[in-house]
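Many introductory courses stop at the sequence. We go one step further.
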Amino acid sequence: MNELQALLNDSLLRTKHVENAALININEKKVCASTFGFNVPKENALNLIYAFYKNLVQVRREGLYFKEKYYKCVRADEHSICLRNPDGGVIVVKTNTFILVATYRAGMYPSVCVEAVEKLEKMLAVYFDCPGGPENLYVKEVMKPHPGEGEVLVKVSASALNRADLLQRRGTYPPPKGASEILGLEAAGIVAGFGPGCEGRWKIGDAVMALLSGGGQAEYVTVPEGYLMPIPNDMTFIQAAAIPEAWLTAFQLLHFVGKIQKGETVLIHAGASGVGIAAIQLVRLAKAIPIVTAGTQEKLKATANLGAAAGFNYKTEDFSEKVLAFTQGSGVDIILDCVGGSYWEKNLNCLSTDGRWIIYGLLSGGEVHGDLFARLLSKRGSIHTSLLRSRKKEYKEQLVKAFTESVLPCFSGGACPRLRPLVDSTHPLHEIAEAHRCMEENKNIGKIVIEMPPSSEGKA
């Protein structure tokens, strides 16, 4: 059973508010799905198409013949036509792509057709048919999502790229069970609809940014209500798209996992990444001291401008020796590590007694060769690991709430210190492959943002 056939059965027949239904593809001028035994002659399908595009006034005045029966017009506009005769009625609902026609008897409530047709709306989304390189990515028309219980539908204006997107594209980091398979862990846009059970925190048209488990690189995405944050008044959608995943990850690592304290020193690897740039500013906000590693002097300069107290080029110098010199031999209290295996020895060299080593990525792999545990034990150090995408809904809601209350106000004008996301570059949706190549080359300073088509209204 195809998706359209399933829609007719699940959204219409099982409600018992229509007798039969069919879907007509407007462009192809033919029936593409129908309930069992409901045959719509081609002539009738064409008449329904012409009724909307050519003969609407005539239909209002004279009614319509459908399957050799005459029906009087009760109501007709550019979106729907309602017809009746003594035996029952016909309701016809149009989208940009389909016409849904359904018959009903007295006592039935064919308004369910309007709800059903909403599920037919389409949108553009990033897609890949098989794992591999950036060349496998393309933009595809897919079904627009329908918000479920406690979910909000967001019309996406921009979405930012994350390393997780690259891993998913390669086939090594699948989305959590139940999450959208479309790439994109963060997005910014406007509220476009609600599922049942929403608590009324938002209204249609509100500017929001969202933490996602997937689905952000599309024209629409559904989001649990508690994952949304308001966009500050003086911030663009592009800037806002650079916040949710990166800043919530950094906030989680520092506060929920690392329990950062005033005056502590934090070593941030990949300091010019989205998470790194967020972490620098959040460490400063916590009245602690951020130091970073990065691979170019340009990146180190950018991190210094954002508040890094020191920065070391991991390609040209031993960062552990530099960190020990900076801390006068005491080492750092917290390490935020997205690199993994190849850094383990240097990380331990510069970790303080009772220090916390937090691993949230494995860019260099996860294998460790050497006496890790003995050296860690000698410093009474602790290793923490953390992923945000696979966390439970309640945890993410608590994280978003804490961030919204304690950090988000610092993005607004007049805040001191004022936080700011850093956008490296923007790419239109159809250049998604090029955006992935840019991230793989590791040249970006800050976030790479994907813009939705400017005239995006979703494809119905």
